[in-house]
Specification:
about 170 residues; alpha+beta; 5-stranded antiparallel sheet; 3 helices; elongated
Length: about 170
């Protein structure tokens, strides 16, 4: 079958692609393009631009926003604070995701400080050779960021009660 693309079963290969001899089907050597914990507003455009890669056929982006309620209570104010090691831990999480998935490019930024309802709290994006890989890597990135990076949310509810999340 000349002219047909060769494929192989990715089971057990970590999803490293369908064309093992083509470099674009694998993760990039240094895919981490943008990481940060910031006090300034976040930009979806900045994160999306950071993961642009000509070898990527799929880009997945997640945007976390401040909602007006939590656990049945109205949120009046919200603030994020971070441990001084937060950026180091964010890099560790990003490196692990890039090592476990065929990531062409990865970006993640998280906001700290006082935020209003509707503000962007976190933006992450991953580009990979294919969409399924991009979805999987993006989900892993945001889930691990939320569980492992020492960033804490302080919510004040409209009834005056307060709650720390992640502390």
């Amino acid at each position: 079958m000349t002219g047909m693309a060769q494929t192989y079963d990715t089971a057990g290969s970590g999803g490293q692609g369908t064309y093992p001899d083509h470099p674009g089907e694998q993760g990039a050597e240094d895919p981490i393009r943008l990481l940060g914990v910031r006090e300034t507003p976040l930009s979806v455009d900045e994160v999306f631009a950071a993961v642009g890669d000509d070898a990527a056929g799929g880009t997945a982006l997640f945007v976390g926003t401040v909602r007006d309620h939590d656990g049945g209570s109205d949120v009046a104010r919200l603030g994020y604070s971070a441990h001084p090691s937060a950026e180091t831990e964010l890099r560790r999480v990003a490196e692990k995701v890039a090592a476990d998935h065929p990531v062409r490019a990865l970006a993640a930024v998280h906001r700290v400080g006082d935020l209003a309802v509707g503000d962007l709290a976190v933006v992450v994006a991953v580009s990979c050779p294919h969409r399924a890989e991009a979805f999987d890597a993006c989900r892993k990135l945001i889930d691990d960021l939320k569980h492992e990076v020492p960033i804490w949310k302080h919510q004040t509810f409209s009834d005056g009660t307060e709650e720390w999340v992640g502390a």
